[in-house]
Amino acid sequence: MCGIAGFVGAGDKAVLTSMTEALAHRGPDGEGYFTEEEKHLFLGHRRLAIVDVAGGEQPMWDGDGEICIVFNGEIYNHGEIRRELEVKGYCFRSDHSDTETLIYGYKEWGGDLPRRLNGMFAFAIYDRSRQQLFLARDRFGEKPLYYSDRPDLFAFASELTALTTHPALPRTADPAAVRKLFAYGYIPAPYAFWKGCRKLPAGHTLTYDLRSRRSAISTYSTFMLCPDRGLTEKHEPQLIEELRYLLRQAVQRRLLSDVPLGFFLSGGIDSSAVVAFAAQVLDPCHIKTFTIGFAEPSFDESAYARAVAQHLGTDHSEKILSIETAKDLIEETLSRLDEPLGDASILPTHLLSAFTRERVTVALSGDGGDELFAGYDPFDALKPASLYSKAVPAPLHAIFRKLAGLMPPSTSNMSFDFKIKRTLQGLSYPEAAWAPAWMAPLDKEEIADLVGEPVSLEELYGDAIDLWESGRDRGLTQAERLLEFFTRFYLPDDILAKVDRAAMMNSLESRAVFLDNDVADFCSRLPIQFKFRNGQRKYLLKKAVEGLLPDEIINRRKKGFGIPTTKWLRTIPPVLPVDAPLGADRHLALRWWKDHRAGRADHRLFLWTWLSAQSAGASPRLG
Question: 364 near 263, Cβ under 8 Å?
Fold first, then answer.
């Protein structure tokens, strides 16, 4: 796990140093630079030493001085790839560096290299003979990669803050990205918060030619459901055994580390499953598990995590915090977000990462389980939503939504009134927009009011709508189309972005077991009845851990990593933040703040998103 930065064009070594130093938290163990000033090429690297501590310094070159790489991530199948390359005649100088494996893998397969990788990665390769840069990002987007492509400059970095440290890239908010932020609660790739910047989408590569100054982006992997409709209940025993094997293998692959390693353990089914399969390949007493809990019972899940740890016999550490104490970290956490994110669970994720980093440098997680196995509340809402949308005329729907707005707002996590209002908000739109609209901080009309001009549904949700319609054309069920939305939008740009930022704030590497290539491919061919059956979410996953985990863990409802956002935002921050209006109607924003603080409305999603946008930089404004 590291941080990378570089550019071709205007700038010098001092600029590169500033960009790279902005990534110091991602790589506190070392730094390295390469410059070729006659070509105006600059590459920088910050290292968090995990694998081959002695032999993994970067930028790293091949033996001929033709291929140079800066790399962030881990390649879990690099051993197999190295052995294949050695048979082909390649000679390695390092003992077991996955970075060097990428170099010779690129020499052998060129742009096809990413297809062969099982891991999380963002890297840039300088090919001296071809005079080009080759950038790649992993299949699900676990590792971030931002870039800017201008006539006089091509620049890239692991974080937007580092990228815009380059003086040629002013921090002016992109109007389209701001609209997307308030429409989704996160900024989906390829958009980025600052104008002139972009995210390289998951599963994509970018080739930049130093001579022509032109770039080309290609897709090498797209997660797409291709359910095998021939699989029926009679295949269930074999599928359970296959899933067990694949998860055990995925855990084992992610144990590769030359530094202390542990496991996040929330007590939910996903992280508990990861630890349970780890206990099949490691002595449980050597498995370090980490949990944070809260003194307030309604937000605390530590008892479930403790039960799993005791059941499996792990070396368990937990930290119980006061919710009121935790809120003191809001300003610090938001100020280090790098790019706005409307997901308030960044705060407990940050706290868990900090606690875990006290004892280990690497942590395995259950991220991706909800997306691959249909673990979210909206799956329960699909059937009644469909019935409602067919039975209720539009005029009556508007009346029902107004009536729901009269319900007193609750400060509880996922309260009944919150769910009703969210559901009706989504049902204001065509079915293809339900998924993003259910989770949106603001609806289309509110966004239009905020930015002072009309916005269209296509402008806000066009990519998500296209994905939904594509799924319909491919014969996917509603639930399968919803699952594709979560894996293609919510997972990379909310969940994985949140975990990466929270972990790297603390120089901790997080590894998502469920995003193993083989596990994901298995899930892509599973029909929906093995994920969501008769109202039961994660059906096959729960079957796979029967006998490995206590029944009360397997059967309990998902709770989520919650904090009392509604309550806190009635007093935090003490001064209402409307000085950096992002081109928005500050009077409207101020009214929403006041309504929330007076208890007249629940604007938690908008207000947290607004706070994160305010914290993204000094007085960001639309340009």
Answer: yes
